[in-house]
Design a protein that fits this description.
Blueprint (H helix, E strand, L loop, with lengths): L2 E4 H13 L4 E5 L3 E2 L2 H12 L3 E6 L6 H9 L3 E5 L6 E4 L3 E5 L3 E2 H6 L3 E6 L4 H17 L1 E3 L4 H8 L20 E2 L1 H8 L3 H10 L3 E4 L2 E4 L1 H5 L3 E5 L2 E7 L3 H4 L2
Parallel strand pairs: 2-4, 3-8, 4-5
Antiparallel strand pairs: 1-9, 2-6, 5-10, 6-7, 7-9, 11-15, 12-13, 14-15
Helix pairs in contact: 7-8
C-alpha cells in the first residue's frame, strides 16, 4: 500500500531511498540543486559503481552544481524538455512527489507525495518503473561540461612544473586526498587532478592513480583503498595550487 508523505516525510524517505540503493538509482526532477547530504550519498554510491541516472529539464545549472556533476564521472545525466514530474526510484522503492531535487524546495515549500515499495505493492511500483523507463527513453543523455565557466570564475592558469619547488617542507604535514584539496582550494576535483598530472606528479593506469618520482619528492604517498589506489598529498601543496 502506498504511504502518504508530507514535506518532512518526502525529504526523509528521499534520503533513505538514495542511501539504501544497492543496484540502480533514478532521480527525476526538472530543477537541480543538491543538498550536501544528498551529494555525499550520491558520491558514496558512485564510488561503489552503482548505476545512477538523473533526468532534469533545465540545462542551466549553477556553477557549483555543474562542477560537482562534472566530477562524478559515473553519474549519467539526461535532459527532457517537457519534464514536469518529480519521481525518485531505486530497485525496491519509489517516491512520486511535488518536490524538486532542489534545496530551496526541501527547506521552504509545502510539498507532498507518496512512497511505494515493490514488496508491498508490486503492481503500482511496476507502473511507476515503466513510466520512468519511458522518460529515460525519450530523454537526451548529455555530459556536463563547464570548462568555459571555470575559466571565468577561477582565472587560475596551470602552473608550469618548473616553478614548483623541488621539495616542500612536509614535516608534521597533514595529508589530503584530491577531494579534500578540492574543498580547501575551491577548485573542482577534475582541475586538481589535471594540475597534478600536468605537472608530472602522478598519472592514471588501469583505473589507479600512480605517483611519479617527482610526486614522491613533493611528499605524495600512494594509498590502497576499497575501490583502488589513490594518492594523498601534503597540505602545503595547496600553496602551489592556489597560485
Amino acid at each position: 500500500m502506498a504511504k502518504f508523505l508530507n514535506t518532512t516525510g518526502v525529504s526523509y524517505h528521499l534520503e533513505e531511498l538514495i542511501k539504501n540503493t544497492n543496484d540502480r538509482l533514478i532521480l527525476i526532477s526538472p530543477y537541480l540543486q543538491f543538498h550536501k547530504r544528498i551529494k555525499d550519498h550520491l558520491e558514496n554510491l558512485n564510488i561503489q559503481k552503482r548505476d545512477i541516472r538523473i533526468i532534469y529539464r533545465e540545462n542551466k545549472l549553477q556553477v557549483e552544481e555543474s562542477n560537482w556533476l562534472e566530477s562524478q564521472i559515473g553519474i549519467r545525466t539526461s535532459i527532457c524538455n517537457s519534464l514536469h514530474a518529480k519521481c525518485y526510484l531505486n530497485e525496491n522503492e519509489a517516491i512520486v512527489t511535488s518536490m524538486n531535487l532542489y534545496s530551496f524546495s526541501q527547506q521552504n515549500n509545502d510539498e507532498m507525495g507518496i512512497h511505494v515499495t515493490k514488496a508491498d505493492d508490486s503492481e503500482l511500483y511496476n507502473d511507476i518503473f515503466n513510466e520512468v523507463q519511458r522518460l529515460l527513453t525519450i530523454s537526451e543523455e548529455i555530459r556536463i561540461s563547464v570548462k568555459k565557466v571555470e575559466k571565468e570564475v577561477e582565472k587560475k592558469p596551470t602552473q608550469p612544473v618548473q616553478k614548483i619547488p623541488n621539495r616542500i617542507n612536509t614535516s608534521n604535514s597533514k595529508l589530503l586526498t584530491t577531494k579534500e584539496l578540492s574543498k580547501q582550494t575551491g577548485l573542482s576535483s577534475r582541475n586538481v587532478n589535471s594540475w597534478l598530472t600536468d605537472n608530472n606528479l602522478m598519472y592514471k593506469k588501469d583505473g589507479d592513480w600512480i605517483i611519479t618520482n617527482r610526486g614522491k619528492e613533493l611528499g605524495g604517498i600512494e594509498k590502497k583503498g576499497q575501490y583502488g589506489q589513490f594518492i594523498v598529498w601534503p597540505e602545503e601543496i595547496m600553496n602551489q595550487l592556489k597560485k
